[in-house]
Amino acid sequence: MSNRMMRLATLSALSVLLAAGATSAYAASTEADYKAAYAAAEAANNEAGKLRNQWTTAVSALKNAKKAAEAGDFDKAVAESKQSEMLSKAAIFQTNEQKDAWKEMEIK
Amino acid sequence: MRLTFRSAATGFVLAALTFGAAQVSYAAESPNPQADLKAFQKYFTDKFPKVKLEDFVNGPYSMDEGLYKQWKEKEEFPPYEFALDAGKELFNKPFKNGKSFADCFPNKGIGIRQNYPYFDEKQGKVVTLELAVNQCLESNGEKPFSYTKDDMASVTAYMAFTSRGKPFDIKIPNDPRAIEAYENGKRYFYTRRGQLNFSCATCHVQSPGDHIRAEVLAPALGILNAMPIYRSEWGGMGTTSRRFTSCNSQVRAVPLKPQDDEYRDLEYYLSYVSNGLPISGPGARP
After folding, report:
1. Low-confidence ranges of chain B (pLDDT < 50)
2. How many domains does chain A fold into?
3. How many structural domains does chain B have?
4. Measured between alpha carbons, how far is B83 from B236 in angstroms, rounded to an integer?
5. Quick one: which H or E segment has residue A61?
């Protein structure tokens, strides 16, 4: 086998290994993954609720997550949960940031 | 005032929120509702020098000549007329115990809209007309109305109609709880919320007269004088509660419950800064 062929074979083997690695990294989400992601999203949503500033989109994503999980689509359920958590965290950030910043807008 | 429509209209971007968190220090100021009122009204009369003070109660119609003409024609057969008739009937209909709404209100409920909301020192909270209507019903053993439309809109439409032309006369008693309620309302009005990062002021202070899609935004000054309203977008009547909750939804914030503290306090603030402007309700809006 020539050096060129050797390099090609090595690259092919590497790509197969990388692909296998990538596949395992993005393996289908499990119910346990969903439950953990949902719990985190729900906690963030509840915190935003206590601050009286839930976002409709965070609530919708949470509902979508539950629906997807009920249909057995845990990849979607995890993605929706993470989206919901991210939105609720942004809502919490907004609430805290506005505690004083609202005064910038006041007519004086 | 530093109002940037652009920052509000960017919609949700977490990064934008992060940039918005500039460290600014704010000096504590003691509340001064009278100075607020003066500054508030001046802001609008300076911004719209051609609009008479009393015309701000006509909302978007006061901002646009074409809309004003349409509104004048619409007022010949106003869409709130059916609600007005229904409200008069409901208002005069005796409760099961023989009493009626007239027994719950000063001056038998006629020509009093301009005094609502008020701070009730016994209850320790702001009482809006909508809350007073339901308190009247419940204290007489009747089922309360839904706060957002239908019977509530009809009864308050009738009560507003009997008060047309009377200037808003909202009082803030010398009670720290009343001042606190007023300040809470002010804070709610200017606080950005929801995924779109809008405050009430973003639309109704910064951008009155501008368009959001086909709609002309109403000025905050006098915005409650026309309540309740028939809104073409709703295809029916709506109360102040409906207006507040739908505004929250539009900026992608989960609305609070109608008549929650924040909404009653907001109504208190917005009504106070419109003191002196005439009641024009019920109104009609696009």
Report:
1. 1-24
2. 1
3. 1
4. 9
5. helix A56-70
Is residue B118 assigned to a domain? yes
Rounded mean pLDDT of chain B?
91
Is A63 within a domain?
yes
pLDDT of residue B42: 98
Find out whether B224 and B21 touch, Cβ atoms under 8 Å.
Answer: no
Q: What is the CATH number of the domain that holds B90?
A: 1.10.760.10
B contact test, residue of A45, A54, A96, A105 with most B CBs within 10 A: A105
Catalytic machinery residues of B: 247
Residue A95 in domain: yes
Helix, strand, coil percent content, chain B, rounded in steps of 5: 45, 10, 45
Contact B39 A108 (CB under 8 A): yes
Range of the domain at A49: 28-99
* Residue B68 lies in domain: 32-286
Q: Is B208 left (phi over 0), alpha (psi -120 to 50) or beta?
A: beta
Is residue B1 less than 8 Å (CB to CB) from chain A?
A: yes
Q: What is the pTM of this model?
A: 0.87
Q: Is residue B17 part of a domain?
A: no
If pLDDT is split at 50, 70 and 90, which confidence band does A16 have? very low
- Indicate if ipTM > 0.90: no
B16 located within any domain: no
Q: Which residues of A touch B39 (CB under 8 A)?
A: 107-108
In a domain, B10, yes or no: no
Side chain identity, residue B146 = S
Whether B24 and chain A come into contact, CB under 8 Å, resolves to yes
pLDDT band at A41 (very low <50, low <70, confident <90, very high): very high
Query: pLDDT at position B213, please?
Result: 83
